[in-house]
Amino acid sequence: MKKVISYTALAILAIIFIMPFIIMVFGSLKEVKQAQIDPLFWLPNNPSIQNYITIFTNGIFIRWIWNSIVITVIPVITQMLFAALLGYIFAKKQFWGKEAIFWIFMAVIMIPQQLFIIPKYIMFADFGWINTYWALIVPELWAIMGVFLVRQFLQGIPKDLEEAAYIDGANDWQIFFKIILPLSFPVIATVGTFAFISNWNDLFQPLIYLTNEKMFPVTVGLASMLGKEGNFGVEMAGATISFIPTFLIFIFFQRYFTEGITMSGIK
Question: What are the DSSP calls for 104-154, one per residue?
Fold first, then answer.
């Protein structure tokens, strides 16, 4: 009886959580008139891909996708690299003030990022970065949380491996690339997954730093499209296309993601 109750509760919660995705997909297949009449979760009477055709024949949407790729992929690569390197240094190396520096970094996470928006906007305006990729890429080149995850993960790797490598004549870089990186792939994949989803779905910062429609990422572009056209079906088609990359990334790295979170000590 307990199992029946548990599975029933889980099934209800699963339906609640998946309902927005069902509405999104069904809405993308509906014509404008049907979307205005039918409840959101009803199946379309005559499913049509016209909304997707409309999206892809709109040249500006392709540009939005490209903008999202640029401001997402570059930070993902650099965050994974810096997280691995700095995490290794903080986990395995000894230097003066190591703990103080690390916890100062961690304290920065406690400050709401919205408080930095005005100073950053003024600084980026002085740099000439408004309406450019730089304003969105440079601040995201590394992430403190990624360093923390890698550090926690590497602290669980025995020091004997490094000592054996040193005895065999390996230097620090050889140890890092040939031992540490392969062993820490699960947590690095976790950092990359977090970074991709965060940057791809970011609406707040692009909305602040970008005013030129051609520079919009897909999140800001879809919001502006809804305000202009008011076409629910087209909006849902764009949202579905935007959702696919994050879904595929999570599915592909799911096994490493779970392992990286577990072995990093995050409960």
Answer: HHHHHHTS-GGGGHHHHHHHHHHHT-TTSTHHHHGGGS--HHHHHHHHHHH
Task: Name the DSSP letter for residue 168.
Answer: T
The pLDDT, as a whole number, for residue 206 is 93
Q: DSSP character for 180?
A: I
- pLDDT per position as a tens digit, 147-159: 988 998 888 888 8
Give the chain's length: 267
> For 107, how many CA atoms within 13 A lie in the half-sphere containing its CB?
6
Between the alpha carbon of residue 248 and those of residues 61, 104, 228, the distances in Å are 20, 35, 30
Q: What's the CA gap between 3 and 25, in Å, rounded?
A: 32
User: Structure pTM?
Assistant: 0.84
The average pLDDT across 68-88 equals 93
Half-sphere exposure of 25 (CA within 13 A, CB side): 7
pLDDT per residue as tens digits for the range 214-227: 999 999 988 887 76
